[in-house]
Structure formats: structure tokens, C-alpha cells
Design brief:
The chain has one helix and three strands, in the order βββα. It is of the alpha+beta class. It has a three-stranded antiparallel β-sheet with strand order 2-1-3, with no helix packed on it.
Length: 82
């Protein structure tokens, strides 16, 4: 069964409900407020791609920082030898 996210303006809660695509929810299951509407959410594969790209950028930044530190240390060593 697919999962859908809903937001209730009455109790200001975000809820995830599992139901068939044919079924319509018009009232909040917690407070019975009719201002209960479906919220668009990112699919799982989009979330995975975003997380993977974020992790990749962190790794790339760490490599860049490490290279800069090595260059700085090499410069210090050259100054000591002189």
C-alpha cells in the first residue's frame, strides 16, 4: 500500500497514512477537522540521490582541505630548511 503525507490546519500536525490511491481522506483522524489536505513529498529515490550528493560533497571538501594542509606544511618545511 502506498503512503501519503497529510497536514491538518486544525491541530497543525503532519500525518502519514497508508491507504489505496482510490481512498480520499477529508478529515483529520486525530481532531476530525475538515481542513486536512494531502502534502506533496519527495519520493525515496530523490531523497537517496540528494543524500548521496551531500555525502559526496562532504568527502570532496575534506579532500580539498587535506590537500591545502599538505601544501601549507610543505611550505613550512621548506622555510625551515633554508
Amino acid at each position: 500500500m502506498p503512503r501519503y503525507d497529510y497536514y491538518c490546519e486544525g491541530c497543525e500536525k503532519l500525518s502519514t497514512l497508508t491507504h489505496s490511491w482510490k481512498k480520499k481522506h477529508t478529515e483529520c483522524p486525530d481532531c476530525d477537522d475538515p481542513r486536512f489536505s494531502k502534502v506533496l513529498s519527495k519520493s525515496k529515490w530523490v531523497k537517496k540521490v540528494v543524500i548521496k550528493n551531500q555525502a559526496g560533497s562532504v568527502v570532496q571538501q575534506s579532500i580539498k582541505d587535506a590537500k591545502e594542509e599538505i601544501k601549507m606544511e610543505q611550505g613550512r618545511l621548506r622555510k625551515r630548511k633554508k
